[in-house]
Amino acid sequence: MRARTHQTTAATSAFVQAIGYLIAGTGPLLFGALYSATGGWTAPLSLLWVALAITTITGWLAARHRFVDDETVEARRRAVEATQTN
Fold first, then answer.
1. Block means of pLDDT (10 residues each) for the chain, length 86 residues?
2. Which single residue of 11, 34, 35, 48 could bond 43 by disulfide (Cβ 3.0 to 4.6 Å)?
3. Rounded Cα–Cα distance for residues 17 and 48 (Å)
């Protein structure tokens, strides 16, 4: 995803980094818990393959040519129209 202004870039970065750190912090814990619970590497490595697939798909979607600013402006316009029709 791209942003047209530095304010949008900063806001998006703060939001995404918080989620990324949360996921990154729980990953090793989950990996170790799966290894301890199963006694083998099949489940933890399967988890990594699933994470890779999810990351590939979301990365592909995020790389499309569109701007966050345009989507937020469109969402605001729809919200204003919805409140005016009620």
1. 79 85 90 95 94 92 80 73 75
2. 34
3. 20
